Amino acid sequence: MKAAACVWAGQEGLLGGDMLLFLFFSGFGPFGEHTVNASWIAVQELEKLGLGDSVDLHVYEIPVEYKTVQRLIPALWEKHSPQLVVHVGVSGMATTVTLEKCGHNKGYKGLDNCRFCPGSQCCVEDGPESIDSIIDMDAVCKRVTTLGLDVSVTISQDAGRYLKPPPGGKG
What we know:
Blueprint: H1 2-9, E1 21-28, H2 38-49, E2 55-62, H3 66-80, E3 84-87, E4 97-100, E5 102-104, E6 130-132, H4 137-146, E7 153-156
Parallel strand pairs: 1-2, 1-3, 4-7
Antiparallel strand pairs: 5-6
C-alpha cells in the first residue's frame, strides 16, 4: 500500500521537488451488508504508514450518503485546498488496483444509507455529466509497473455507479 501511494504522492519522482504536498485521501463508510468498508481500512493503514515528511496527509471516512457528500467534499476542498485528492473505493469484483479516469454525476438510482436518492439522479445538481481526472492515469499505471512493485494496476474508463437500485428497480 505504501509503495503504491508514494507513487501518487511524488515520493518516487512523479511530482518531484522539495515542496510540501497537501493531500487528502478518503475511504467510504459502511453500507448495505458491508459493516466495515475495506476502502476506509486501506486509507487508515496509509495514514499509519505515512508518506514522508514532505507530505501533509489527511484522511477522512466519507459516509455513503448523498447529502453528506454534497456538503462535506466541498467543505474539505475549501478547508484544505489540497494538491491531490484520492477517493478510495471498494469493489468485490476487482482483482487489481483500478485507477478511474472519470466519475459520473448522473444516473444514480440507488438508495444511500439514509434511504435517500436525489430525484434528479444527480450527485451535483446542474453539474456536468461526468468529471474527468486531470491525472494521467496511463502514466501512473506505467510508473507503478516499471517500479516493479508487487501490485497490479489497471485503468478504468467507467467508475460505474456503485449504489445499486433496490429490488424492483426504483430508487
